[in-house]
Amino acid sequence: MPPNHNLLIMNENFHEIRMEDYDINPITGFLPPMPPLRTLPDEYYEPWEFIIENFHELLLAGRFRTSVDNMPLLNVDHLKTPAEYHRAFLVLSFLSHGYVWGNVNDISDRIPASIAIPWVKVSDYLGVAPIANHAAVVLWNWRLIFPDEPFSLNNLSTLLTFTNTFDESWFYLVTTAIEGHGGSALSSIISAVNASNVGNNNQLLKALKGISSIIESINLTLQRMYEKCDPYVFYWKVRPYLAGWENEDRLPDGLIYEGVDGNDEYGNPIYRKYIGGSAGQSALIQALDVILQIEHFSTSFIKPKVNKVDEVNVDKINKDNGVNKVNGVNGSNKVNGVNKVNGCNNSGVQSSREYNKAPQVNICSYMNNNNNNNNNNNNNNNNNLKCPFNNMNNKQKPYLYKIRENMPGPHRRFLEDLSKIANIRNYIISNIGYDSSEDEEIDNLIKAYNECLAQMKNFRNIHLQIVSVYIVIQENRSKTALPIKKEIITKNYTTEPIKITKPPVMDSIKGTGGTNLIPFLKQMRDETVAQEIPNKY
């Protein structure tokens, strides 16, 4: 008699995850439970706060760098709480990026010791790289307009911006609002992984439906980016400040953190290289990938085999009910004016078992030389696979793994631990056809899982479209072109194709994180679709 099939899914690395162990709040998710500090309470840090308070005026007057150069070197020992460290990191990030990028005609390849030394120390405390990142501008850069009202996009304001524009604030706040779904998303994620590891199908089904619903809400929030963020302003005014100093043509050697590293053996200053801020640094979005076992590889390493994927039409945006919609999910229907995404089988993807032949490589586990045993009959050969990333240098590692260096330490650790026990897809596949009395139950799990994939695919289509409008098109426009007004976005981008004057440039346009944007985002979308479980397995 075969063993109870519930035992097939037991993972030797399994342990129940608790949010509080990873600086995660059950309500706010990766956001802090209370709004971030608006100033540092200790007057000792007044020199930092003075320059931040006069940030835009000093840039306008051409006195920003001089003011930073004349600033005293302050010790970080006066910072007492995590909230104070968050504020310090935000302030020092803005001081540093303002110093480097604030004068477009004179980019600095160094930051003075007055900001470099405390920035590195604060970064070490938080377990994050010293670079302006997603955590700084999104997680720790918001306040409630009306403190007695709930957290929502319509009740948020930013603490700091580089350009003092509504467009920059909106760009950050849309993402902050997405992170606001983190509490409920992570609760469902943890419920799902616990259910799959103890064989509770009812709990797993409920959790998957919850995850799908949350991703749909995230998609609706992301589509609001067009409302108050002008593509011209974003690309030419805001985006330059978010660049890092790795894979950056204007800083090919990186950046000198004065007073931190000294000189090399030849007496030359040591340069540091860090990837700039990007949406990929959201631990929430990466957690959704992890729980669904969506693996992302370097663009030059592996591409999933997909028979047919409906492409995002880079040249077209649909307008529906006043909100820009994205084409690219076939078979969707509208409910109350909102696109409801069907399962991947209706999306134009021809399912085949070929998807399931791809190794279920757990990147994090391999990176740490700690392979996971999936313990299911369909993937026995995986246990003998050697990690394809073990001998790679830092540049060759999968991008989404590498940018976890830009996440707060506890959040990065959460993703690493979650990846060791996430086995929902493997669990469902291992139980297909095992017990005929549970066929309907497993079919429902397949549908719920595929619906999550469809929503993630829709998320990536929307992201692709935003990148096309805000970066690709702007890259191919003249720098002297007039700003694109809101009414142009909402009225004219309907069915007429957007003309891109230099299509070959599209594949070489880089994001602030240094990736070739369009190929990278398309591959992420394709890797998402490739994980679909065929309904008729």
From TrEMBL:
It comes from Diversispora epigaea. GO terms for molecular function: heme binding; indoleamine 2,3-dioxygenase activity; metal ion binding. Signal peptide: none annotated. One of its GO terms (biological process) is 'de novo' NAD+ biosynthetic process from L-tryptophan. Keywords: Heme, Iron, Metal-binding. PANTHER family: INDOLEAMINE 2,3-DIOXYGENASE (PTHR28657). GO terms for cellular component: cytoplasm. InterPro entries: Indolamine_dOase, Trp/Indoleamine_2_3_dOase-like. This is Indoleamine 2,3-dioxygenase. Belongs to the indoleamine 2,3-dioxygenase family. It holds the Pfam family IDO. Heme b binds at H463.
